[in-house]
């Protein structure tokens, strides 16, 4: 019983008996009812109650009816209060004893505005609601045992108001059917006495006398006996049955014979038998209605055939009562208190009856259809029910929000033993439950009075009220109404907008803060509603028991309890709006508790079990709670929560749970070590949870989507950054946290500004560049890479080849300004790589060479040379050769002007080369192999390659201008002067320098063969574009070279070089002129090779001339013969001299 301040409470001590968890709870209606004293001096007790339309009627054993009127509460959530209105003392003929003492029954007939009051065996009638005597107070019926039998089908069809309501008065000797409207009219009497309970469906009623249950056709007056109320009752001996006479006298009613040990009826044939086990009751002669056949059994004769078989018994499971009866059959029976009959009608085609042995022993509920057959399975009660009612919202109030899909329950008042003490309890079980699961589906609601045992509680019973009452359920509203979650330092007092929103949420939640109540419980001087606990209250209270306060500062979560609640609703589909909100709320609260348990375990330094983490994760995903709620409990992720201007609105029950958990969580106690319990228990789970939430982007069902996903992305990045701290430096590998981090960034995040702060905080510049790339802000991407390349710390170390990555990235961009800016920066840092940005044909931004040169000269002067080299040598753009030559020459001449050492280096290289003995490399190869690291030296090599080559660039530079600049350094730049002399046609000067200045005889020979072109060009590279000189030109050059060889200072060198030249290239020399030039002092042997080759050449030429002459003679002869043959074929022709002259 809720909010009890008096003596009567619903038990919450026994786990099995905890009404907080059960299907039902008590709601106090009224207490401390002023009960009068009975004639014997004892305090009166409540005997019956009923409510209708805000009126409460209480019958007492003192023969009084107390009338209370309700006054509505101040608000929708306030319970109505009841005030005393009148005290009625119905008249009676004689004082009755025991169960018939006082007001035994109150029967309200709202359709006709009447009430029937049975007091001390006398039935009187009153009007509703004030209980004034009806029909002038003239009608009284003495010797009455019971009144009831209202047609339940007529109640469902709501069809009694026009014609009146038919009730059955149970007299001591007969039943009397009367119709009550403006007047009371008797319909008929049925000769059947001793009936103490009756329920009716149309013409068929189920009745109970002191010992047995029977089915009674109130129109045809036929009775089918079913089974005894108590299986220990002594069966009456069956009288001799006549063979043909089926009529019975009123004093000797025939009864069905049942075994004393079982409620099972005897077997019967397939045909309905109204003989033996069925009485034909004589209608009273005064009844205005003639006997008629029941509409449910057309064509049935009033007197069945004697040959009809007996009724077949339905199989009934043997219970403890049968075993007990067998045992007790052999001993002397002790007097047993009669069991009160209980009859209910759960459906239009069934009756529920109870049977048992003793009040202290288990009872059994059996379902009987309208044919008297036992159907369904039986239901069991802890003890035999003292009273029994059916609670079905579906039947009684289908418009109720609680009714959608609710199943009917059987409520029985039983006795139980809890903690060694006998108590009274209401046992509730679903009507449609599987018999195998019946025990598991039961719940109990204990009824206790202070220091009173079960037997000491006076006047107790259950009653089904005439009308359903709506009760306020503040707990439902308090749990479901939305409230703003407090984040950080926020004022406790809500603002105007928040207060307005609170009022709106209260109004919305109040729709569900109503419970239907129709079952009343009275005991002692208290009356309570027995209300079906809303599912949210049942499960919420179970979850609350999972929160265990170990100490004022220590909290524990019972994971098994929370998980049991989750399992109980797993897969359950909502059938109405309240149930949808309930299931959502419970799943979310359970997920909070399971996740809170992981936080508490982490604070203690324990790594949670895998199944606990898995259950928490599953609950979080299934609950779909706002992730900001979860993150608000975990430092430092709570800093990522973005509640926006409106805030985070969650159910108040969830908000209270979050606040409670936060009080036990502090950033000082929670060791934030990603490698420890913090990472294992929390970070890994939160990562998967947030990744699951990211998949919901774009779903219209997510409230406050912008702030939710901004928080989700920020928290996810924060979690991944913490987990990635232990990952080795370098690019991400598949399946790692770093790969997940990259994937999250590349797919885009909604928390752009917060992500920038996090990456700066964790020094993850490369990730920052990926963030910019996801937004296509290419300038920021390059600026971040520039920071990494220039030395800013990047903890991840993912940018391995930064400069190359910049070059490749620039080729993909279309923004010329960005490409120009960072291409220049790269050219300044790495000229060879940077110039490729301006010269790459695959780049999306193309620069004209003139434009690129101008840019580089302005922003990256050091890269101009590389760019020009790329243009001239790589792309053969000869128009830039003069610029490149000028650059090389400026570098070399500048060095020679300011450095004596450089000049000496060049002169020394000539002397060293000349001192080498053949065979020796060319001078070009020599200086290349012995090059220094100096920039000017390499520039000189490129200069020689450029001006000495035979490709297009060698013919495009200004030879005259170049010669003027080189002349002052002719002694130091001998190769350059040789090339320029060759370009200007000064072959003699060039060969002289080659022979005497350098001593590079092989290059001199090459000079003669190539005509002075490409003598200092590397062997590999571009093929010469100019044609080779003619042999006559080569012969002339060789003649110049021979003269220079004759002037070599070293005699031995002179003889060797001259002899070699004549021997190898004798074909280019005139023998006579060579012989004239050879000094007489030289031995013939020195030039023997030349002379032998020369003579052989002369002989070969003479022989070739003879052959040519002979071939020419033969050719002339062949042509003469061919001419003669053709002339003969043509023949002679006459020529007219005059014609020819004309």
UniProtKB/TrEMBL annotation:
<feature type="compositionally biased region" description="Low complexity">
    <location>
        <begin position="284"/>
        <end position="296"/>
    </location>
</feature>
<dbReference type="InterPro" id="IPR032914">
    <property type="entry name" value="Vam6/VPS39/TRAP1"/>
</dbReference>
<feature type="region of interest" description="Disordered">
    <location>
        <begin position="1"/>
        <end position="20"/>
    </location>
</feature>
<keyword id="KW-0653">Protein transport</keyword>
<dbReference type="GO" id="GO:0016020">
    <property type="term" value="C:membrane"/>
</dbReference>
<feature type="domain" description="CNH">
    <location>
        <begin position="43"/>
        <end position="433"/>
    </location>
</feature>
<feature type="region of interest" description="Disordered">
    <location>
        <begin position="231"/>
        <end position="317"/>
    </location>
</feature>
<dbReference type="GO" id="GO:0006914">
    <property type="term" value="P:autophagy"/>
</dbReference>
<keyword id="KW-0813">Transport</keyword>
<dbReference type="InterPro" id="IPR001180">
    <property type="entry name" value="CNH_dom"/>
</dbReference>
<protein>
    <recommendedName>
        <fullName>CNH domain-containing protein</fullName>
    </recommendedName>
</protein>
<dbReference type="GO" id="GO:0015031">
    <property type="term" value="P:protein transport"/>
</dbReference>
<keyword id="KW-0963">Cytoplasm</keyword>
<dbReference type="GO" id="GO:0034058">
    <property type="term" value="P:endosomal vesicle fusion"/>
</dbReference>
<dbReference type="GO" id="GO:0005737">
    <property type="term" value="C:cytoplasm"/>
</dbReference>
<feature type="region of interest" description="Disordered">
    <location>
        <begin position="484"/>
        <end position="505"/>
    </location>
</feature>
């Amino acid at each position: 019983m809720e909010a009890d301040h008096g003596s009567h409470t619903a038990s919450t001590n026994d786990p099995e008996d905890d009404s907080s968890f059960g299907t039902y709870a008590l709601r106090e209606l009224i207490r401390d009812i002023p009960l009068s004293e009975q004639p014997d001096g004892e305090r009166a007790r409540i005997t019956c109650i009923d409510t209708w339309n805000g009126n409460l009627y209480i019958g007492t054993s003192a023969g009084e009816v107390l009338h209370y009127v309700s006054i509505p509460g101040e608000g929708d959530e306030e319970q109505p209060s009841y005030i005393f209105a009148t005290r009625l003392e119905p008249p009676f003929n004689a004082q009755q004893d025991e169960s018939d003492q006082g007001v035994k029954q109150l029967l309200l007939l709202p359709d006709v505005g009447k009430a029937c009051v049975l007091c001390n065996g006398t039935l009187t009638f009153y009007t509703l609601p004030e209980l004034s005597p009806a029909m002038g107070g003239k009608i009284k019926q003495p010797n009455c045992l019971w009144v009831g039998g209202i047609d339940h089908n007529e109640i469902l069809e709501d069809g009694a108001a026009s014609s009146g309501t038919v009730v059955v008065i149970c007299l001591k000797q007969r039943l009397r059917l009367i119709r009550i409207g403006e007047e009371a009219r008797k319909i008929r009497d049925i000769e059947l006495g001793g009936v103490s309970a009756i329920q009716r469906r149309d013409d068929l009623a189920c009745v109970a006398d002191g010992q047995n249950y029977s089915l009674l056709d109130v129109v045809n007056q036929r009775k089918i006996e079913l089974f005894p109320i108590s299986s220990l009752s002594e069966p009456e001996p069956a009288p001799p049955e006549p063979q043909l006479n089926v009529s019975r006298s009123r004093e000797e009613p025939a009864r069905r014979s049942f075994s004393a040990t079982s409620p099972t009826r005897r077997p019967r044939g397939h045909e309905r038998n109204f003989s033996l086990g069925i009485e034909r009751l004589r209608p009273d002669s005064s009844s205005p209605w003639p006997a008629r056949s029941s509409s449910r059994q057309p064509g049935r004769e009033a007197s069945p055939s004697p040959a009809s078989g007996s009724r077949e018994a339905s199989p009934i499971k043997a219970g403890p009562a049968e075993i007990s009866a067998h045992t007790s059959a052999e001993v002397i029976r002790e007097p047993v208190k009669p069991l009160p009959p209980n009859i209910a009608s759960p459906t239009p085609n069934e009756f529920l009856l109870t049977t048992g042995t003793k009040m202290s022993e288990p009872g059994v509920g059996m379902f009987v259809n309208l044919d008297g057959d036992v159907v369904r399975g039986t239901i069991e009660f802890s003890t035999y029910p003292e009273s029994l009612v059916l609670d079905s919202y579906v039947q009684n109030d289908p418009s109720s929000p609680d009714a959608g899909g609710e199943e009917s329950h059987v409520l029985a008042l039983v006795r139980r033993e809890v903690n060694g003490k006998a108590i009274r309890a209401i046992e509730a079980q679903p009507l449609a439950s599987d018999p195998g699961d019946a025990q598991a589906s039961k719940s109990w609601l204990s009824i206790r009075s202070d220091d009173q045992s079960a037997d000491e509680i006076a006047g107790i019973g259950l009653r089904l009220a005439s009308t359903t009452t709506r009760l306020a359920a503040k707990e439902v509203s308090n749990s479901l109404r939305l409230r703003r979650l407090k984040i950080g330092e926020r004022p406790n007092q809500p603002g105007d907008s928040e207060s307005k929103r609170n009022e709106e949420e209260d109004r919305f939640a109040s729709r569900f803060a109503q419970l239907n109540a129709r079952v009343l419980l009275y005991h002692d001087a208290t009356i309570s509603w027995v209300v079906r606990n809303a599912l949210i209250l049942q499960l919420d209270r179970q979850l609350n028991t999972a929160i265990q306060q170990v100490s004022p500062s220590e909290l524990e979560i019972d994971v098994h309890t929370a998980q049991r609640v989750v399992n109980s609703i797993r897969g359950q589909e909502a059938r109405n709006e309240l149930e949808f909100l309930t299931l959502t709320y419970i799943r979310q609260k359970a997920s909070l508790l399971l996740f809170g348990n992981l936080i508490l375990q982490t604070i203690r330094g324990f790594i949670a079990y895998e199944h606990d983490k898995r259950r928490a994760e599953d609950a979080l995903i299934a609950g779909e709670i706002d992730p900001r709620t979860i993150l608000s409990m975990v430092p430092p992720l709570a800093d990522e929560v973005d509640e926006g201007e409106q805030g985070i609105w969650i159910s108040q029950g969830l908000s209270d749970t979050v606040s409670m958990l936060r009080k036990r969580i502090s950033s000082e106690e929670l060791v934030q070590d990603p490698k420890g319990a913090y990472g294992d228990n929390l970070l890994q789970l939160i990562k998967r949870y947030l990744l699951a939430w990211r998949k919901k982007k774009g779903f219209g069902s997510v409230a406050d989507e912008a702030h939710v996903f901004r928080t989700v992305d920020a928290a996810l990045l924060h979690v991944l950054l913490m987990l990635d701290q232990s990952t080795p430096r370098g690019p991400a590998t598949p399946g790692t946290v770093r790969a997940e981090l990259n994937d999250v960034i590349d797919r885009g995040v909604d928390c752009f500004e917060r992500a920038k702060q996090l990456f700066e905080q964790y020094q993850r510049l490369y990730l920052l560049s990926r963030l910019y790339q996801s937004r296509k802000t290419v300038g920021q991407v390059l600026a971040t890479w520039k920071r990494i390349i220039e030395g800013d710390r990047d903890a991840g170390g993912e940018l391995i080849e930064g400069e190359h990555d910049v070059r490749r990235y620039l080729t993909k961009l279309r923004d010329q300004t960005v490409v120009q800016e960072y291409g220049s920066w790269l050219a300044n840092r790495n000229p060879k790589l940077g110039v490729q940005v301006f010269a790459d044909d695959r780049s999306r931004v193309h620069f004209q060479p003139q434009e690129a040169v101008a840019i580089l000269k302005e922003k990256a002067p050091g890269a101009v040379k590389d760019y020009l080299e790329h243009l001239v040598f790589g792309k053969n753009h000869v128009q830039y050769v003069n610029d490149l030559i000028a650059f090389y020459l400026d570098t070399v001449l500048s060095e020679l002007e300011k450095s004596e050492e450089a000049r000496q280096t060049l002169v020394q290289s000539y002397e060293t080369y000349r001192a080498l003995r053949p065979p020796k490399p060319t001078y070009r190869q020599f200086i290349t192999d012995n090059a220094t690291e100096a920039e000017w030296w390499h520039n000189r090599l490129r200069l020689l390659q450029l001006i000495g080559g035979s490709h297009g660039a060698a013919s495009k530079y200004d030879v005259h201008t170049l010669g003027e600049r080189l002349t002052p350094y002719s002694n130091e730049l001998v190769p350059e002067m040789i090339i320029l002399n060759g370009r200007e046609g000064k072959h003699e000067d060039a060969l002289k320098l080659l022979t005497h200045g350098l001593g590079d005889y092989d290059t001199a020979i090459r000079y003669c063969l190539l005509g002075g072109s490409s003598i200092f060009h590397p062997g590999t590279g571009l093929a010469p574009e100019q044609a080779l000189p003619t042999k006559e030109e080569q012969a002339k050059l060789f003649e110049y070279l021979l003269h220079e060889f004759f002037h070599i200072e070293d005699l031995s060198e002179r003889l060797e070089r001259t002899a070699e030249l004549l021997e190898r290239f004798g074909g280019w020399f005139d023998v006579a002129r060579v012989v004239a030039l050879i000094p007489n002092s030289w031995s013939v042997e020195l030039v023997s090779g030349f002379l032998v080759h020369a003579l052989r050449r002369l002989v070969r030429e003479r022989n070739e001339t003879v052959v040519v002459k002979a071939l020419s003679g033969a050719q002339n002869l062949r042509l003469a013969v061919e001419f003669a043959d053709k002339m003969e074929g043509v023949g002679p022709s006459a020529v007219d001299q005059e014609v020819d002259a004309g």
